[in-house]
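Quick illustration, no need to memorize.
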Amino acid sequence: MPISGRRARHGYKLSAACRYRGSRALVVILAALWPAVGTATVTVPEEVAFRTLHPDGTMLRGFLVRPAGEGPFPVVLLLHGCSGPLTRSGQIAARERVWMELLAAEGYATFLLDSFNPRGIASICTQGDRPISAEEDRPFDAYAALGWLRNQPFADPNRIAIFGWSHGAMTTLAAISAAVIEKVGWSGPGFRTAVAFYPGCLAASKTAYRTDVPMLMQLGGKDDWTPARYCHRLVDMLRHDGRDIAVDTYPGAYHAFDNPSGEVRQRRINSGGGERAVHVGANPVARKKAIARTKEWLADRLRR
């Protein structure tokens, strides 16, 4: 479903009590909210703005964290899920924040792209009629971010990965597909590799999906929101074509198993087929393994 033209295109809501008034104000807010961490490589995220390649012309924003040193650094572009990248109080969500810290500590620049708030959207998880599509709309944002990153002196333009969760993982799958690359009109060097945490693979598994980008999938064996079996079907198709695809499925893990804290809980969602109940929540064992696996995958393809 295309992005609605009725949404506000100028300014966006950070929380009920705080509205964006310029990059300096946001940096001050983030500095107050960003917790201290035990590594010198992590700094307060820097907010940047650039225009999407999508026909709606939205001015997007992203949150950038650079590791210590001069660079140029390999970069990981992070794509949030259907809940958006921010909490209700305007903080970067814990899952995204912790991954930014982990990757920065490994020597990567991390760039969290916000596709929702600049368009006046906070979350779409419970919306059956979703105003922004993972496959049709958000890839334009991803390639706008790639173009911006490739022109930054701190970034190595040939070592940029795309990494998404859930709705953002579906965008990851779409963005590296041959069909979407052609649709977006991207002709330069693309993403070096991709990481997809618990994407919805049903639609892609029913198409002649093709990609030349090495990809790692991390799936929950008990995921009842985006079931792993459809991704296994897609992986089998790609491996049959000789593609560099790896997948790990963690038994007992539900959707969002890499959250840094919290219990498994039931929530109501709507992905367009009606409202239903699913389970989401942390699985410490699966999370630990997935972090190690992701670090290994990125190091092999971005650093070695």
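DSSP finds eight helices and twelve strands in the chain.
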